[in-house]
Amino acid sequence: ACGNFFGGKVGEICKKMTKETDLGALYDKKRKQFYIGYNLDTGRFEGHYDLKISEARLLGYVYSALYKSSKPYFGTENVLSGAEGNTLYSWGGTMFEYLMPEIFLDTPKKSLVGSSARNAVKVQIKSACGGVWGVSECGYSDVDECGNYRYEAFGLNALGLKSSANACVVSPYSSALALEFAPKEAVKNLENLKKQAYGNFGFFEAVDNRATESQVVREYMAHHTGMLLAAVANYLKCGAIRRAFMSDAAMDGAKMLLTEPINRSKPQRKKDNGFLETVTEGRDFKAVYPKNLVIPRFNLLKTDDYGVAVNDFGEGYSFSKGVFVTRFRQNMFEPYGNFFVVRDEDDDSLLSPTFSPLKMRGDYSAEFGLNHARFSNGNLSEEVFCPSFYCGETRILTLSNPHKTDKTYTVFFYSEPLLGTQEADFAHRSFNNLFSKTTEKTDKNGVLEMSMERRFPTSDKKAYMTLTAKGADGLTGVTDRFRFIGKNRTVGNALAYTVLPKRVAGDVSEPCMAFYGEVRLKPGEQKSVEVTLGYAENEKDALKLLERPKSVYFGKSLKSPQTVNDKTEIKLTGKAYEYFNALFGALCYVPYSDGKLKKLAADKTGLSKTITSDFCRKALYFGFNEKTEEDFDEFVEGFELMRSFGAECNLVVGYVESDFYGGKTYRRILSKIKSSVIGKEVFIVNLEGEGKDVEKLCFKSFSGFDEKHKLPVAKPKNRKKTAKPWKIDGDFDVGNGTFVTMGNKNFYVSKGMKADALPYSDVVAEPRGGFVATDNGGGHSWFLNSRECKTTVWDSDTVSPPISEKFVLTTSGKSYSLTDGSAAVFEKGAVTFLSDTGEALTKLTEYMLPDGLGKRYELEIKNKGKGEKKFTAITDFDLS
Length: 880
What we know:
Helices cover 21% and strands 31% of the residues. By secondary structure, it is of the alpha+beta class. α17 (574-589) packs across α20. The chain is elongated, with a radius of gyration of 33 Å.
């Protein structure tokens, strides 16, 4: 167009550029479609423009005209919408996709594309919001960490296949593009927009009407202003730019491509979701969980790069791209998650904004929303965000001083990285920890930077977890879990809360990401400590993740109005979203009922084994019929959301086939399953055959969340007193204990607990079973196979080993652990724990029955007092 209009030197430059441009480089000859782009990082072309209504329509026309082939132009699909009769769908439902190519192409008004463009304008006018119309891709009111307005392809649901909620963000250039299709309406709309969005250089970028008050996006974009000017020139000068473009011989020679006739078939009209006027309307929800905590309810925060599952105890985990960034166990009574703990320096008392990890009495509440979680307890509050612009999460702890005097607090933060799969972590936790390296430093502004690199021994792959913290004085990072927590402790009673550890980083056998710092507050003052965790797959991206949270705009961006955009993968409505959050908690913590287990065991068809993946997953049942079909799409969305967070569940869809030969019902179900694997994660069962009783075998049927599945309140743990170990003199010392020779037998005797990194252990094995015991009471029993057939729970945690076979002695209102902290005697075939509680001497011996057919425990108690006393022995086994 420029070459023909200007001629001369400009024309020569334009012709040279046209001649030297290889449009075929972006053309996929197999699919007869253009690639969306080329990824420099992967060295591959990615994505295709597969719909006729898109900006690539102009490229297809030029390519076809220059290379004399109609395949590029007709290689795209024509998908019809019922809007305004027959209208071609675009992907995003934007004005840009329909009308930008029309600046140059002389498309007949009554052709399929011409009528679709005209109908799209009608739909846009009818979908006015805030008194104006014209929705297309543009900048909007949210800003990134550098203070720049964000950009997004906003569109109308009725015109776009993307099926996202309509967002009321109106751009002036969209109205200008419509001048030739609806001049009166477009001019009036531009006049209305001028009253609120006009600056020194013309129209501002957009008006964002989603919040309560309209917000003007005060920027100018050259390509949008350029389209506006070109559209105005075409309208005022009878298509001047279009005529110049089509005057080229090649472009004029391909005009027949634009005459595709209107399709007279009757397409199904797509349901219009209406506008998302505010960030929360229709989709977000506000669920508040107060002090009477029952089975933990989860909040699932997710973008396409990163996810956070956090429950109302404050426990949970983070994951990214199939990798568990932090460690998690489905155990209500052990704290796993990212936690803040605050120590009051006046009286050394401990507080936390969440019920975990301290599990102490307090004024706790949890508030869940679609894009955030908020916890509070007294003068502490914590907010959790999963921002769409960052591969990670941000947690903000806010402290206030309600007292009349100055206060000083020490703030602790703790996170336990995994950077791997749950399966590998269960298989050999200690081995996987060997391939970790940590760093820690504080920059000149007092911002703490920490990172952990995880190497994988069988490949060149690496994974990184980053932490950036600011807002406290003297921030000190600790990456050694043993130094922060201490031996035989948990994050609920970590040693660091009483004795501050030194800076630790480098190669550690038990890594963590923890720090502490000081916050001073004057009366009535309030301050915040901000922690940002990130995940990366290479060192370059990890360094970027460490830098970005330092920007002053980063924190502001977290709380600015955000709609549910392409990067937010959760598409559920508020009510359904809350339901699946609750169901996720039940899948984590609630076991099968006895009745269900009996039915699974009695099943002779083999169906129970199939739908539970060899009894490793819980089966959820959905009865599909005409009445429930409308709910099914949302249920599949929720199921796949839970599966994406690692929930061990399968979906069973029961149906009755109305069309036996055609299989229409089965095909309808099949078409609604998006990413789950049929026959592995989703099972479609005909209820007229062997599957008639399949619902009875499932963990839960879809009928709303069942309150009967709630678990009782998880109360704070009573700190048991540890029995005193016996004093034993041996032949020579090794580790925590000593070797003793008595007659012709050798014994190893532990002298009680010390801060060793590794406990001393004894293995007692018989052909059909055995057990491992350690001198701190940890260990587990097994049958047949020590790795695969554990009877009691085992986790190779050297810092806080789970004691799955607990023995407690109570008397006079006091309780004593008989294994944790006792003296342990190891001999061939048996382990004995000796304790002195002060009121009694105890001897607990455990050994295997012949051939390993059972395990026996013997407890001897000797009263040290003169009078009669009542002793109660309590056992607590955590079964695997």
